[in-house]
Amino acid sequence: MAPAFLILNGKKASEPTIRDAVTQLRDEGINLQVRVTWEFGDCHRFIKEAIAARCSTLIVGGGDGSLNEAVNSLMQFSADQRPPLAVLPLGTANDFATSVGIPQEPEAALRLALTATAHPIDLACVNQQHYFINMATGGFGTRITTETPEKLKSALGGASYILHGLLRMDRLKPDSCTITSEQWQWQGDALVIAVGNGRIAGGGQRLCPTALINDQQLALTIITAQEVLPSLLHALTRDDENPNIINQRASEFTLTSEHTMTFNLDGEPYSGTRFHFNVLGEAIRFRLPSPCTLLG
Predict the structure, then answer these.
(1) What is the Cα–Cα distance from 106 to 180, expressed in whole angstroms?
(2) Which residues are known to be catalytic?
(3) Strand duo 218-224 + 245-250: pairing
């Protein structure tokens, strides 16, 4: 029987619930290999090992950043080499895992990873070199998620982003930029820009509530700098239309700015003045629960 590989974030390797879950599955005869990361680059090395072993499933034990690292590693291999991907959610926010309905309890998440159907899903790409599975966010939200203290995240989880954001409302500054696609162009000042393959980011905030992970489209949400606080709260809590919130969909578009901007790609910061976003249809296979609201 082909092994399944669990690549586990080293910070979580000693948690008893994870050890107990792995032991239980092994006692049932499941060939589950565990590899623990110590530093950047370990994930790619373990993925190479898993592919060489023709693994049945590659399970990422970590948060959105760990999943992002695995996705970027997998895209260095040909499509026929990429094993089905799954996630054991162990991060602060676990935005992608939450949005697709992955259980938080380790044994339940691992059982789903080993038995669920592997669905073809899309990935997003920035400037033809950086991939993300869930969402890229720019503007005030990015500054908050990158500046939130680790101790606060450990204590409060996803709610820490909201609390830290409210404490830093004095730093609300819009980004002036231009966004173009084949059919559409927008220019102005944006407080928040979200490019969604998935729907939520920043600890559970619904920034792209209609996004699907298998429609070969990216959802774009722009919260403009008009009436800043009401628009921001509206975007996070309601689905009806607001003239200060722009929603578009496209398979690709380009954002340019005269000043350096930073986008948070599934938790990983990426800075520049030009960002070309495009979707890669059915780029990987992901083991998902049924039903899954992010599948069209």
Answers:
(1) 42
(2) 268
(3) antiparallel
pLDDT in tens, 81-131: 999 999 999 998 899 999 999 999 999 999 999 999 999 999 999 999 999
Q: Measured between alpha carbons, how far is 122 from 184 in angstroms, rounded to an integer?
A: 22
pLDDT value of residue 237: 57
List of residues 6+ apart from 108 with CB closer than 8 A: none
Distance in angstroms (rounded) separating the CA atoms of residues 107 and 202? 26
State how far the alpha carbon of 42 is from the alpha carbons of 27, 37, 38, 48, 258, in Å. 27, 5, 7, 10, 37
Greater confidence (158 vs 58) lies with 58
* Cβ neighbour number for residue 149 with a 10 Å cutoff: 10
Average pLDDT over residues 17-39: 97
- What mean pLDDT comes out for the span 233-262? 80
DSSP 65-101: HHHHHHHHHHTTS-GGGPPPEEEEE-SSS-HHHHHHT
Q: What is the pLDDT of residue 173?
A: 72
Q: Return the number of other C-beta atoms located less than 10 Å from residue 78's C-beta.
A: 7
CA torsion sign, 174 to 178 to 180 to 184?
positive
Distance set, CA 6 to CA 10, 70, 119, 120 (Å): 12, 12, 19, 20
CA torsion 119-125-128-129 (nearest 10°) is -90
For residue 136, CA distances in Å to 34, 68, 188, 247 come to 30, 11, 19, 15
- Rounded mean pLDDT, 156-165: 39
pLDDT category of residue 21 using cuts at 50, 70 and 90: very high
| Tokens matching residue 95 | 């935005």
68 close to 40: Cβ distance less than 8 angstroms: no
